[in-house]
UniProtKB/TrEMBL annotation:
Stored Pfam families: ABC_tran (PF00005), oligo_HPY (PF08352)
Native organism taxonomy: Bacteria, Pseudomonadati, Pseudomonadota, Alphaproteobacteria, Acetobacterales
Sequence ranges assigned to domain ABC transporter in this UniProt record: 1-248
Predominant localisation class: membrane
Domain of life: Bacteria
Annotated compartments: Cell inner membrane
Protein name: ABC transporter ATP-binding protein
Keywords of the record: ATP-binding, Nucleotide-binding, Transport
Entry's family note: Belongs to the ABC transporter superfamily.
Statement: the UniProt record of this protein carries the keyword ATP-binding: yes
Key word ATP-binding present: yes
Length: 315
């Protein structure tokens, strides 16, 4: 079980002035073991920032990250270091995260060797096993990343992550750079690995269609805040928040889509200066006077469904 509660205030240079931005604003998130949680929002909503905080890579400016009750932010604790190793991230661009001068065998095998997960004598067999698991032929392990296709490179990233025996994986737009047919293959690989290895995922994407395919539960973010949270079924069948509704209206079905660019009406406001009250009010078709001044709290609106919208007080 992972419990995250916190916020990150970022200092961003904006022209001559420097301003504090709440990239993640009082978010709390609980992920149960074995669950796949989809984290969705347009670019700049803070979902990558939240993902990096949950993985323990980026400390929040205040808050806590608990894994099975252990505080991940505790630098001196061996338990926290071990939990961080068991948390791996997979990114959008595998090429940028793979050292071009290293052979696949070393990319995959380096960390488990350093951490004593495999020994020198068992090294080759161990690397082969990780490559096979990720759908790669170990016969190619002496090759370099540029000798592989985009989909295969993502598989190298996955093999490298699996090699340290993680139980929690944060995928940040892990299929966004891939062709649709390859996307489906990689998503199916994630689904298979989840049951084979008892993995838990936080699956970050701007693309609701991708998230629907893999998630048990979906969390929707808008400008640093969680606006809705529910089971995947509920989000797609009866979304509560007007932002979720407009995101859904813009999602072509997965079979027919080309690239799912968000077409929610209106510009995304700058996170440097988010609108007061409900951040979504300038784009919301239902906005009322109250929405411009008062921040809506995340409240339970149905069993297992939370939403932050003033409309729920009017029913
Ligand atoms: Fe729209 Fe108001 Fe609800 Fe925000 S609180 S989503 S502006 S109706
Ligand atoms: Mg991002």
């Amino acid at each position: 079980k992972l419990d995250f509660a916190g916020r990150l205030a970022k200092r961003l240079g904006a022209g001559v002035r420097e301003e504090t931005v709440h990239a993640v604003d009082n978010v709390d998130l609980t992920i149960r073991k074995g669950e796949v949680v989809g984290l969705v929002g347009e670019s700049g909503c803070g979902k990558s920032t939240l993902g990096r905080m949950v993985a323990g890579i980026l400390p929040p400016s205040d808050g806590s990250i608990l894994r099975d009750g252990t505080e991940l932010l505790d630098r001196d604790s061996a338990a926290a270091r071990e939990l961080k190793l068991r948390t791996q991230m997979i990114f959008q661009d595998p090429y940028a995260s793979l050292n071009p001068r290293m052979r696949v065998v070393d990319i995959v095998g380096e960390a488990p060797l350093v951490h004593g997960i495999t020994s020198r004598s068992g090294f080759d067999a161990y690397v082969d096993e990780q490559m096979r698991r990720a759908g790669l032929d170990p016969a190619f392990k002496r090759r370099y990343p540029h000798q592989f296709s985009g989909g295969q490179r993502q598989r190298i990233g996955i093999a490298r992550a699996l090699a340290v025996k993680p139980d929690f994986i944060v995928c940040d737009e892990a299929v966004a750079a891939l062709d649709v047919s390859i996307q489906a293959q990689i998503l199916n690989l994630f689904i298979r690995l989840r049951s084979e290895l008892d993995l838990t995922y936080l699956f970050i994407s701007h693309d609701l269609g991708v998230v629907e395919h893999i998630s048990d539960r979906v969390v929707i973010m808008y400008l640093g805040r969680v606006v809705e949270e529910a089971s995947s079924e509920t989000v797609f069948a009866s979304p509560n928040h007007p932002y979720t509704q407009s995101l859904l209206a813009s999602v072509p079905r997965i079979e027919s889509r080309k690239r799912a660019f968000s077409v929610v009406k209106g510009e995304i406001p700058s996170p440097l200066n988010p609108p007061p009250g409900c951040h979504f009010h300038p784009r919301c078709p239902h906005a009322m006077e109250r929405c411009k001044v008062e921040k809506p709290e995340l409240k339970t609106v149905a069993p297992g469904q939370r939403s932050a919208c003033h409309l729920n007080d009017m029913a």
